[in-house]
Model the fold of this input.
Amino acid sequence: MTAGPDQPPIPTDRRGTLGAGPDGDWQIRFERRLPHPPERVWAALTSPDQQASWMPGVTIDATEGGAVVFDFGDEGRADGLVLAVEPPRRLEHTWTWPGEPPATVRWELTPDGEHTVLVLLHRPLRSESVVDYAAGWHGILDAFGAHLDGADLGEPDYAAFHDLYAAMVK
Done:
């Protein structure tokens, strides 16, 4: 793993995993322990006012069939539809990115005392795209956690994230 010369190493507990899922397709999985109750995490994930705070350009209409948009400006845009909603435990939606096969993103929230374990699973993915997706989700989840903590994250080090996940697929 590399990080920029002025950047500390990426903590192990913030790293995602990528590899083959049970059916052989590529997937990305992140597990983050957040020092907030599930209801607070759920509100940050599903409230339009809060979505803009952790990811400008994201819109998740947390109703079955609701629209999902992750607009990254010049980088592109992912669209989807909400497949399942179980407040405050699970949100699942499709993910359609130009030139990529359709995928599914699942957000699972599990209480852990007064904390929440957030698991994000994105699958199926092409092996050629998995590193870029992992780096992107890492940055998004860091911003999500910073929002919950009331912190200012600053600009994510996507180059370090990319290097970290590229090393996992070699």
Residues 1-5 have pLDDT under 50 and may be disordered. The beta strands are 17-20, 26-34, 58-60, 67-71, 77-86, 90-95, 103-112, 115-125.
